[in-house]
UniProtKB/TrEMBL annotation:
Pfam families: cNMP_binding. This is Cyclic nucleotide-binding domain-containing protein. Residues 3-79 form the Cyclic nucleotide-binding domain. It comes from the Bacteria.
């Protein structure tokens, strides 16, 4: 059950007054590092990349999200949050006021359990990727990312996309700890059959 389904099932919240729904075109910033935001976002459809800027101002991607993931600044990091969020394809987003979101993840047991499960899932994925970067060879790293994103997503216009195929070589490089050039060389060497879903 996703967040909005949990909230609707309780009938305890004035959702129509609190929650907005927005549509964001492809390749648009949702927020930038240092921008003051008071919202948490839930992906209804589409895909979003999260990242930050390198020492020379370049985009560095560290996560790719799709429905029904949530993202945003919970403001628990004493001003150390320095992240951008950008759409990869046209997105339909639900926008929750930050104060309301923080209240329900503490006070509503069902929402709290949902939040904890999702946080642990995201940590586990991040840890597995980091382990892969430190322990696997380049082909194995690429396989890990392929497995993570070998799925179909819908955009806000109800068009289907293969999530891995949406990623640029630079984004794959960021997620695997390889350069864009290395990613390009590996993909050229591999036949499509080599990249397949593994158990």
């Amino acid at each position: 059950m996703n967040l909005i389904e949990l909230l609707r099932s309780s009938n305890a919240y004035p959702l129509e007054r609190l929650i907005k729904e927005v549509y964001v075109a492809k390749d648009q910033q949702i927020y930038q590092p240092g921008q003051h935001t008071n919202s948490i976002y839930e992906i209804v459809s589409g895909a979003v990349k999260l990242g930050s800027y390198g020492s020379q101002g370049q985009d560095i991607t560290y996560d790719i999200l799709s429905a029904p993931d949530t993202f945003g600044n919970l403001k628990y990091l004493n001003g150390q949050f320095f992240e951008f969020a950008k759409t990869i394809i046209p997105c339909h987003l639900r926008v929750y006021p930050l104060d309301f979101f923080k209240q329900i993840i503490v006070e509503d047991p069902a929402v709290s359990e949902w939040f904890n499960k999702n946080a642990v899932r995201r940590w586990s994925i991040a840890e597995a990727r980091l382990f892969s970067i430190r322990s696997a060879n380049s082909i194995e790293r690429l396989q890990v990312i392929y497995n993570d994103f070998d799925r179909e997503v819908l955009d806000s216009e109800n068009k289907k996309h293969h999530l891995f195929s949406l990623l640029t070589k630079q984004e794959i490089g960021d997620l695997t700890g390889m350069t864009r050039q290395t990613v390009s060389q590996i993909i050229k060497k591999l036949k499509p059959i080599r990249l397949k879903k593994t158990a």
